[in-house]
Amino acid sequence: MNAEPLNASAPATARIIDGKAVAAEVTDSIAAMVAARGVKPGLAVVLVGDDAASQVYVGAKGRKAAELGFHSVQHTLPAETSERDLLALVAALNADPAIHGILVQLPLPAHIDTTKVLETIDPAKDVDGFHPINVGRLAIGERERALVSCTPAGSLLLIKRALDRPLAGLDALVIGRSNIVGKPMAQLLLQESCTVTIAHSRSRDLPAIARRADILVAAVGRPEMVRGDWVKEGAIVIDVGMNRIAAPERGEGKTRLVGDVAYGEAAARAGAITPVPGGVGPMTIAMLMANTLTAACRVAGLPDPQF
Ligand SMILES: Nc1nc2c(c(=O)[nH]1)N[C@@H](CN(C=O)c1ccc(C(=O)N[C@@H](CCC(=O)O)C(=O)O)cc1)CN2
């Protein structure tokens, strides 16, 4: 039977999908599961160099892990660290039974081959879900054996919370084809039996494609590219973009964060929409914690936690 498209009585202004609140629900449930299951998930976060934003993210991940009762370690290496030394650290973490999850913060300095580093992480400890084994398992429909990339996994959870019906049969559009967000997002939606389109910078008549989408995920890295008139009435809009743009109205040299969607315009037509900040971003760290708990449960022979 064909699913009805979303639309019918679309509200004049979208519901705001509160990523912070959903992330807090996820991490609360993780803390409860850690206590109930008697596991001590171990997360190692590796930072190479002194990129200011990366320092903030790595600090937030380590603190959240400790707060949830995980064994939490951070390795901070200087920017000049050789690829060989970084690979040796990853190998040591692969061999450490107290560590269930390894995360190497990106971007890495230019002299280090990122692919080589990510492929050295034991797939069972790859809590970022970037290893080709995990990507492949997701692609062949073996999500239950994979660790799934955190941002798409978190986005799917937000979509499910925003919808009051199953996703099956809905038209989903993912704008952006990155390995980290666009492609795994499309795979997840496909497994929910959506009809999935992946669009990118060379797609023809993107506004027309977008107007057909019941679920629109923007992960293209272009500030406010998706305009209000691209959005179907009542659609769920998930904005993965995080773009810092000049904000002279706030004073000289000031900036502000915007997504890939022109929020005000899109909110006037969407059924529900994620803001930036406060939408998808907080889910990334929550799903990292979820993946680390999952990895620890698998080692202990326990069932995967469900979120
Ligand atoms: N190994 C990884 N590296 C990177 C990842 C990743 O998932 N794994 N993602 C990004 C950075 N990132 C986490 O690492 C991340 C970025 C942003 C947020 C977030 O919550 N953003 C806030 C806004 C923050 C602000 O005001 O600047 C939001 O959207 O509300 C969380 C995690 C690159 N590297």
From TrEMBL:
<comment type="subunit">
    <text>Homodimer.</text>
</comment>
<dbReference type="InterPro" id="IPR020630">
    <property type="entry name" value="THF_DH/CycHdrlase_cat_dom"/>
</dbReference>
<keyword id="KW-0521">NADP</keyword>
<dbReference type="GO" id="GO:0004477">
    <property type="term" value="F:methenyltetrahydrofolate cyclohydrolase activity"/>
</dbReference>
<comment type="similarity">
    <text>Belongs to the tetrahydrofolate dehydrogenase/cyclohydrolase family.</text>
</comment>
<keyword id="KW-0028">Amino-acid biosynthesis</keyword>
<keyword id="KW-0368">Histidine biosynthesis</keyword>
<keyword id="KW-0378">Hydrolase</keyword>
<keyword id="KW-0511">Multifunctional enzyme</keyword>
<dbReference type="InterPro" id="IPR020631">
    <property type="entry name" value="THF_DH/CycHdrlase_NAD-bd_dom"/>
</dbReference>
<feature type="domain" description="Tetrahydrofolate dehydrogenase/cyclohydrolase NAD(P)-binding">
    <location>
        <begin position="149"/>
        <end position="298"/>
    </location>
</feature>
<keyword id="KW-0486">Methionine biosynthesis</keyword>
<dbReference type="InterPro" id="IPR000672">
    <property type="entry name" value="THF_DH/CycHdrlase"/>
</dbReference>
<dbReference type="GO" id="GO:0004488">
    <property type="term" value="F:methylenetetrahydrofolate dehydrogenase (NADP+) activity"/>
</dbReference>
<dbReference type="InterPro" id="IPR046346">
    <property type="entry name" value="Aminoacid_DH-like_N_sf"/>
</dbReference>
<keyword id="KW-0658">Purine biosynthesis</keyword>
<dbReference type="InterPro" id="IPR036291">
    <property type="entry name" value="NAD(P)-bd_dom_sf"/>
</dbReference>
<protein>
    <recommendedName>
        <fullName>Bifunctional protein FolD</fullName>
        <ecNumber>1.5.1.5</ecNumber>
        <ecNumber>3.5.4.9</ecNumber>
    </recommendedName>
</protein>
<comment type="pathway">
    <text>One-carbon metabolism; tetrahydrofolate interconversion.</text>
</comment>
<comment type="function">
    <text>Catalyzes the oxidation of 5,10-methylenetetrahydrofolate to 5,10-methenyltetrahydrofolate and then the hydrolysis of 5,10-methenyltetrahydrofolate to 10-formyltetrahydrofolate.</text>
</comment>
<feature type="domain" description="Tetrahydrofolate dehydrogenase/cyclohydrolase catalytic">
    <location>
        <begin position="17"/>
        <end position="128"/>
    </location>
</feature>
<keyword id="KW-0560">Oxidoreductase</keyword>
<keyword id="KW-0554">One-carbon metabolism</keyword>
<dbReference type="Pfam" id="PF00763">
    <property type="entry name" value="THF_DHG_CYH"/>
</dbReference>
<dbReference type="Pfam" id="PF02882">
    <property type="entry name" value="THF_DHG_CYH_C"/>
</dbReference>
<feature type="binding site">
    <location>
        <begin position="176"/>
        <end position="178"/>
    </location>
    <ligand>
        <name>NADP(+)</name>
    </ligand>
</feature>
<dbReference type="InterPro" id="IPR020867">
    <property type="entry name" value="THF_DH/CycHdrlase_CS"/>
</dbReference>
